[in-house]
Every structure is written in structure tokens, then in C-alpha cells.
Specification:
The complex is a heterodimer. Chain A is of the alpha/beta class. Chain A is built from 10 helices and 10 strands. Chain A has a 5-stranded parallel beta sheet with strand order 7-6-5-8-9, with helices on both faces. In chain A, strands 3-4-10 form a 3-stranded antiparallel beta sheet. A two-stranded antiparallel ribbon of chain A has the order 1-2. Helices cover about 40% and strands about 15% of the residues of chain B. In chain B, α15 links the parallel β17 and β18. β10 of chain A pairs parallel with β18 of chain B.
């Protein structure tokens, strides 16, 4: 917050959650102080509760069928529009990475550009996923058989404590490109790089893009607190994450065993700046279900 | 119209498999005595007579098998892919050569009709090895740009309904990708896997690349426990949803990879505009193939209300000509129930069906005096809330329900925690494809049912599990992508 003796009092942003296309406060009324890299108080972030998660899941599930039913071409254009909105906020993202995460301007600029370019990449994936992950199968008999990827529903995206902007884009875009909806859990307290102001700036880009309400929901909260609820929530179809602390990974995998939701934490994957992997269809594959359809192709 | 059963003379299969009277564990390329010192008799469920004695692996035995697989893995992974391929091709050829003998053994040990083990299981077993042999030197194209690497040691736990086919589904892709394996066959059906062990050794598969540990649930748990400790890198399980969930829990946080192919309660949907006689055949093969011991069995039949009576008449007529009995008789349609325990489970469901108010009709046929048998049967008047409409029975029991609109058919079909397969019978192409889009299942059969192929990915939605087996998509379970670690 600006010191009282400044010539002009800064209009500080109230950081709220992003659920179903709106910016509500946490129903719990909880907030967490956000400190910058020099330990100065810069804002208070909403601290999402289990109830906020449930509300977000409900909104995400209600919105998802329409998003899945949209043409892949349409979804591609919507995600490209999101890249346009991110591009317009380059300076804001970069300055938040510098001030909150304490990284250099050069690093920040690089990360922002990479994140936006990755978003463009996935805008281009929507109408190619089926061609690359599915296809016609040459079975040994008179049947026409094809395999197609389908979205699974709503997927929780667990942002790790490093490079939150790039991590968010890397994990979120594959999920929604495939036709799922998402609930992003952005850490407010984890260090070294919890960045709630950045998560909400990202939400503002989403809100002004054409991504339908409910498809991307963003909860700033404590990952360890929400992980067990996410894991055991029966209306969540999957969990995406990478480079998470071992305790969080275990909590997610343990709870998910209850309804066998798909938890993919990219244990084998390279760091987020490896474009070869993170731009590949194999970043999408864990968040689709493959359906194989058979029909006789000769009259019996 | 009622068709009387056609009298027929038995046509027994004459080939007999070459068997040892006792089998050890197949570890490090040869059969070894179990450290547990324990063994058990494996029987023919059609006669209740013992066929052979097999080892009952304990924890130390499973650990020994895992060590053998670990030791063999780096060299197998470094073997030139085209050379790995040649070994797998050779295995496929040898299985073809011995296919009749293996089919007979499969029927003897598991109870399935010889015409199924001969015409369905064995051809698919050979095809799985042949198909995956060709993948060995093409993985870089299958996962272009993602630097595929072997996962390491795979623990593979398989069920008793398609013993050798499940072994092939597990082993072939794992080996093609440069992994080594510890395979645990089901307790009641260990024999074809053990003969496969002999074939693998004979075909020059290096020692320790595949290890086969026979035993009960404890041997399976020992594999999972080693995976939780990081000694097994991947677990593949086919079996019940209950056990699948327990494995997922045991592996949580370990970093071990997991694929699960679990239970089902699959819908088979017949529209009024279907080719009805073909649909009857599809319903029959959907539920009575392999005595209904099929995870993707079409165990919930949804018939459009306007044709319900006509269709059920046709189905009952068809049931009258089903031949139940000796699995080794080439005329047999429905063989023996796999085990006494499974027969008891099925009987419990039959009772629940009647108790809850559904009406049972069963094929009238004589059953052999010895062995485990269950007549094919259907329940009509089933409500969605009935136990037999919700739970997997894994037996020759069909629950029949009706629907009025396609919308209702989709909703009722999808109203299950499972999602393995679905069948649709209609002569309208657009309706068939719309249904294919809307049914939540990993495999959708349109105007056919229970078709399988090594190139066609198979696996579940929802609580029917995750991961696919077959085709390029099935290889994903056996590679690490991205080049890290």
C-alpha cells in the first residue's frame, strides 16, 4: 500500500476470486496478506475455502458440456482471443513477476512472452488433438473403427510454487483446449513464488476474453488445505499438476483413489521452459478420455 | 413360435496340451522352487479335477522376481529395438504354432468354451505380440518429439476371465517399450501363463525380462507394496474396481505409474429400428460370451418400449438353443463358471434379482453333475435401483429395462459409476453416431458387440479405470515422456 506521504494515494486493487465469470470474495471472508519480494504489504488476497471450491465445481460442470460441444475451430479462436488479452497485459504481468517474485526484468519479460506464446500454441491445438491422439484403427476384420479423444469434465489445475504464470498456462491450456473446464488453484502463501496478484491479473485477462463463464475458475488459496477436498470431490473428473511438494501430490493421489479421478502430476516431465514437451500433444493426452467406436463395414 | 432344442452329438476337442504335473515360479528365465515352499492344485472348473500343482509365491518370491526384472531391464532397454522386435515376432509365431494346444489348456483351466478360446482368445494373443513387435523400433514416431523412454520394471496383475489374452495385453506393449515385467496370473487360471513362460524362454527372450509369479491375492499385494517402495516402476491391473481402488491408494505419492482396467455394467441399447435378429445375436454374445465373465459384458439391456415384448420373445427363443456344458465340446456355447466362489457370487445376485421383484427366465438345459454351472438367464421388470441393475455380476445374467426416447436411453445408460463399454443397435447411421458421441464409455460397439483388436485401444471411463490397452494409444502406459529424470 502506498505510504501516506505520497503525492497521490494509489488506488489499490482488492483481490478476489474468479468463479463463473464473476469476481466474488471468498464466502469464508478470509484474506491473506500479500507481501512483495521486499516483504512489504501490497494487498490482501482472498483465501478460498472448501465451499468456494464446491461453488466453482458446480459452475464449471454446468458450463462444460457447452464448451465441449463447441466446434474445435471455435474453441481455438476463443483461446487465441485469450492470448490477445494476455498480450495486452504484458507489462502488468512482468511488473508483478518482478515486484512479487523478486525476479529480474529480463527473466520476467521472457516468462511472460513464453506464457503468451504457449497460449497461442494451444489455440492452434484444439482442432488437431483428435488427429494426433486419435485416428482410424486398422483392425483385422470388416469393421470401421476409430478412436477419438473426449474431454472428461472439470479438471483441477494445481499451480506449483515456481514461475506461477508459465506454470498456470502450461497446465491450464491443455486442459481447456481439449474441451474440459478448469478450476485453477493458485497458491497464496507458498514460497518462493506465490503470486496472488498475478493470478487475479490472469483472471482479468480471462474475463475480458471470450472464454465462457465457468470454463476457467481461479481460486487463490492454500494448496495443502484444498488438496484433500479436491481429491475426494466426486464431481471433479481430473487433477493436473506438476512440480508439487510431495505431501500435496500424495494427498491428491490418495483422495482421488476414492472415485478414480484422473490425477496427472507430470512426474516425468521436464521444466516448464521445455517447449518441445510443453507444446506437445502429450501435455494434453492425460486430460482426455479415449473412446473407441466400432461399426461393421461389410454386410453380413 | 418356440423352437425346440436341436439334439446333437458331442464333438470333443481331441488335442491335449503338454503339461508338467508341477510348476515352479518362472523367474530369471527358468522355473524355480518357491521360497515360500507352498503350492496349490489348480483345477478344471468343469470337472473339479486337479490339472497340475503350481507354486504359491510369497513376498520373498515376488521380491526375487522383481530383482530379476530389475537386473535384466537396462540390457533389454539397450537392446537394439529392431532386435527386440524380432524376438517378439518370434513369440507371436510360436504362439500361433501352439495355439490349439493353448486353447485347450485355456478351456480346461478356465472353463470357457473351446470355440471361444480357439477362435477369439488365441488369435488375439498372437496378434497382440505381432502388433507390438512392430512398435519396438517405431516408438520415436509414436511419440514424436517427446523422447520416449522405458518406465522400468512393470508389475502386472491379471484376471481369470481371459488369462492368456490378458497376459499378452500386458506383456507385449511393456516389452516393446523396453521394460521388464513381473506378471501375476489369477489364482484360478495360472496354467497358460506358465506355458507362455516356456515359450518366451524358447524364443530367446533374455533371462529375467519376463517373470511369472503364480499365487493368490497376497502375491498381488506384494507387487503393489514393492511399487509403493519404488522397487516397481509401474503397476498394471485388470480386475475389480474395489481392488483397483485399493491399489491406487497403496501407490499414492510413490510416483509409480498406474493403469487400471476395472469393472463394468455396460449398456446394450436396442432401438425399434434395429435389425432385430442381428440385435438378438449381439445381445447373446454381449452377455453370454465367456459365461458373462467379461468386464465389458453388455449386462444391462435397454430395449425401446414399443418392441420390448417382441424382442424378449426372440431372445427367449434364442436362449432355448444355447448349449451349456463341456467346455471342450466344439458345440458348446456356454461353458463352466470359473470357480466355486464365483458361482456363489452369481447365485447371490440371482436371489437378489428375484427378491427385489424382477422376473427371471432361464434357458432350460441339463447341466453336468460335476463342476460349476449356471444357466444363461435374463431378468425382466428390472428397475434402475435394483441391485442387479447397478452392480457387476460377472456371470451369465442379463438385466432388461426399457426406454421411450433416445434421450432417456442415454440418461439411463450413463447412469452408472462405470464406463467401460456400450452397445447400440439401430439401422439409422446418424442415430448410431449420435449415441456413440453421447455414451460415456471407452468402447462403443455399434451394431456389433465384444469385438477386440490389438490395434484398437480398449479401456474405461469413470470408475472402469484409466489407461488404454492396444494400439499406439496403449503404448503410453509403458513409456516416460519428456526426457526428464
Amino acid at each position: 500500500m502506498s505510504p501516506a506521504n505520497a503525492t497521490r494515494v494509489e488506488v489499490a486493487k482488492t483481490l478476489k476470486l474468479y468463479v463463473n465469470g464473476a469476481f466474488p470474495r471468498s464466502e469464508s471472508g478470509r484474506t491473506v496478506p500479500v507481501l512483495d519480494a521486499k516483504k512489504r504489504l501490497v494487498a490482501h488476497a482472498s483465501h478460498a475455502s472448501r465451499k468456494d471450491l464446491r461453488d466453482a465445481v458446480e459452475a464449471a460442470n454446468a458450463a462444460q458440456p457447452k464448451w465441449a460441444a463447441a466446434t474445435a475451430y471455435n474453441r481455438g479462436q476463443v483461446l487465441y482471443r485469450l492470448a490477445e488479452m494476455l498480450e495486452a497485459r504484458r507489462a502488468e504481468f512482468a511488473s508483478l513477476i518482478v515486484s512479487i517474485e523478486g525476479r529480474t526484468k529480463g527473466e520476467a519479460a521472457k516468462e511472460v512472452d513464453r506464457a503468451i506464446d504457449r497460449c497461442v500454441c494451444f489455440a492452434g491445438w484444439t482442432d488437431k488433438i483428435a488427429a494426433v491422439l486419435g485416428g482410424k484403427q486398422p483392425v483385422a476384420g470388416p469393421y470401421f473403427v476409430f478412436t477419438m479423444p473426449e474431454p472428461m469434465g472439470t479438471v483441477a489445475v494445481m499451480v506449483p510454487d515456481e514461475r506461477p504464470l508459465l506454470a498456470t498456462v502450461s497446465l491450464l491450456l491443455p486442459v481447456i483446449a481439449a474441451g474440459n473446464s478448469a478450476i485453477v488453484v493458485a497458491p497464496v502463501a507458498g514460497k518462493p513464488a506465490a503470486n496472488a496478484p498475478l493470478a487475479i491479473a490472469f483472471a482479468e485477462a480471462v474475463a475480458t476474453s471470450d472464454v465462457p463463464a465457468g470454463i476457467i475458475n481461479i481460486l487463490t488459496g492454500a494448496r495443502a488445505e484444498l488438496a484433500p477436498w479436491i481429491a475426494s470431490h466426486r464431481d471433479l473428473a481430473g487433477v493436473a499438476g506438476a512440480r508439487l511438494p510431495a505431501a500435496d501430490a500424495k494427498a491428491l493421489e490418495l483422495g482421488a483413489a476414492e472415485n478414480l479421478k484422473r490425477v496427472h502430476l507430470f512426474h516425468d516431465a521436464p521444466p516448464f521452459d521445455d517447449d518441445a514437451f510443453w507444446h506437445s500433444p502429450f501435455a494434453i493426452q492425460p486430460f482426455v478420455d479415449l473412446k473407441t467406436v466400432w461399426h461393421p463395414s461389410a454386410l453380413q | 413360435m418356440t423352437i425346440a432344442p436341436i439334439p446333437y452329438a458331442p464333438a470333443p476337442e481331441s488335442v491335449r496340451p503338454t503339461l508338467r504335473s508341477e510348476y515352479g515360479l518362472f523367474i530369471g528365465g527358468r522355473f524355480v522352487e518357491p521360497k515360500s515352499g507352498k503350492g496349490f492344485r489348480t483345477i478344471n472348473p468343469a470337472t473339479e479335477e486337479a490339472i497340475a500343482t503350481v507354486a504359491d509365491a510369497g513376498e520373498a518370491d515376488v521380491a526375487r522376481a522383481v530383482d530379476a526384472a530389475r537386473k535384466a531391464q537396462p540390457k533389454w532397454a539397450k537392446t537394439k529395438p529392431a532386435e527386440r522386435a524380432k524376438i517378439l515376432f518370434r513369440i507371436a509365431r510360436r504362439i500361433q504354432e501352439r495355439s490349439r494346444e493353448l486353447a485347450v489348456l485355456e478351456s480346461m483351466n478356465g472353463g470357457k468354451p473351446i470355440k471361444e478360446s480357439r477362435d477369439e482368445d488365441l488369435p488375439l494373443v498372437a496378434q497382440h505380440f505381432f502388433h507390438h513387435a512392430g512398435w519396438c523400433d517405431k516408438l520415436d514416431y509414436a511419440f514424436a518429439g517427446a523422447k520416449p523412454k522405458p518406465v522400468g520394471v512393470c508389475g502386472q496383475i491379471i484376471p481369470w476371465n481371459f488369462p492368456l489374452l490378458m497376459a499378452a495385453w500386458k506383456l507385449a506393449p511393456a516389452l516393446a517399450c523396453g521394460n521388464t515385467c513381473v506378471l501375476k496370473p489369477a489364482e484360478t487360471t495360472p496354467l497358460t501363463a506358465l506355458v507362455l513362460g516356456e515359450i518366451l524362454a524358447e524364443c530367446g527372450l533374455p533371462e529375467g525380462v519376463v517373470n511369472i509369479v503364480t499365487g493368490g491375492p497376497d502375491a498381488g499385494r506384494a507387487i503393489t507394496a514393492l511399487a509403493a517402495k519404488g522397487k516397481v516402476d509401474k503397476v498394471a491391473f485388470t480386475g475389480s474396481t474395489e481392488v483397483g481402488k485399493a491399489i491406487a491408494k497403496a501407490l499414492a505419492g510413490s510416483g509409480a505409474k498406474l493403469t487400471l482396467e476395472l469393472g463394468g455394467k455396460s449398456p446394450n441399447i436396442v432401438f425399434a429400428d434395429a435389425a432385430l435378429d442381428q440385435a438378438v445375436e449381439g445381445v447373446v454374445s454381449g452377455i453370454w460370451f465367456n459365461q458373462g465373465h467379461v468386464c465389458c459384458a453388455g449386462s444391462r439391456l435397454f430395449v425401446e418400449e414399443s418392441i420390448h415384448e417382441d424382442f424378449i420373445d426372440r431372445l427367449r427363443n434364442r436362449m432355448r438353443s444355447l448349449r451349456v456344458g463341456d467346455p471342450l465340446d466344439k458345440n458348446t456355447d456356454v461353458g463352466a463358471i470359473n470357480s466355486k466362489a464365483q458361482l456363489a457370487t452369481i447365485q447371490r445376485y440371482l436371489k437378489a434379482g428375484s427378491d427385489e421383484g424382477a422376473e427371471r427366465f432361464e434357458a432350460a438345459c441339463d447341466l453336468p453333475k460335476k463342476g460349476f454351472w449356471c444357466r444363461p438367464c435374463i431378468f425382466t421388470g428390472v428397475q434402475p435401483s435394483h441391485t442387479i441393475a447397478r452392480e457387476e455380476i460377472f456371470g451369465p445374467v442379463l438385466s432388461v429395462m426399457t426406454f421411450r426416447t433416445p434421450e432417456e436411453a442415454v440418461q439411463r445408460a450413463n447412469n452408472t459409476t462405470y464406463g467401460l463399454s456400450a452397445g447400440v443397435w439401430t439401422e439409422k447411421a446418424a442415430r448410431a453416431l449420435e449415441m456413440a458421441n453421447r455414451l460415456n464409455a471407452g468402447v462403443v460397439w455399434l451394431n456389433t458387440f465384444n469385438r477386440f483388436d490389438a490395434s484398437a485401444p480398449f479401456g474405461g471411463y469413470k470408475e472402469s479405470g484409466f489407461g488404454r490397452e492396444g494400439g499406439r494409444q496403449g503404448l503410453s502406459a509403458y513409456v516416460k515422456l519428456g526426457g526428464a529424470r
